[in-house]
Amino acid sequence: MGAALAIFIIFPLLLRKRYMAKMRGSGGSGFGFGGGLFGQGQGTGVRYVCLTCNNRFKGGDCPRCGSKMKRADF
Ligand SMILES: [Zn+2]
């Protein structure tokens, strides 16, 4: 149990270290891609994020858990 927990903690750290090194090597052009992905598109109606399970959906209740608790997602 302890060993498994240690792996879960250390493994993401190693991945991030490798990722950071890759970013530094690519000349820093990696940024902006994520912002463009989230910044545009989906111009059809308002989308909501379920406050219970974090699921994104359009209108009505959450199709995953049926909760009415939601907030608008822009
Ligand atoms: Zn939900």
Give an overview in words.
With 74 residues, the protein is α+β, with helices and mostly antiparallel strands. The chain has one domain. It contains two helices and three strands. The chain has helices spanning 2-25, 33-39, and strands at 47-50, 56-58, 70-73. A three-stranded antiparallel β-sheet has the order 2-1-3, with no helix packed on it. β1 (47-50) and β2 (56-58) form a beta hairpin. The protein starts with a helix and ends with a strand. Residues 32-42 have low confidence and may be disordered. Bound molecules: zinc ion. Zinc ion is lined by residues 50, 52-53, 55, 62, 64-65, 67.
Q: What's the alpha carbon Rg, rounded to whole Å?
A: 19 Å
Q: How is the main sheet built?
A: 3 strands, antiparallel
Alpha-beta content class = alpha+beta
User: Strand content of the residues, in percent?
Assistant: 5-15%
Topology as a string of helices (H) and strands (E): HHEEE
Residue runs with pLDDT of under 50 for 5 or more positions: 32-42
Alpha plus pi helix count:
2
Number of strands: 3
Question: How many domain regions?
Answer: 1
Assembly level: single chain
* Integer average pLDDT: 78
Helix content: 40-55%
In this entry the ligands are:
zinc ion
The coarse silhouette is elongated
Major β-sheet strand ordering: 2-1-3
Beginning-to-end CA distance, first to last residue: 41 Å
Task: Kindly list the characteristics that best describe this protein.
three-stranded antiparallel beta sheet; binds zinc ion; 74 residues; 2 helices; alpha+beta
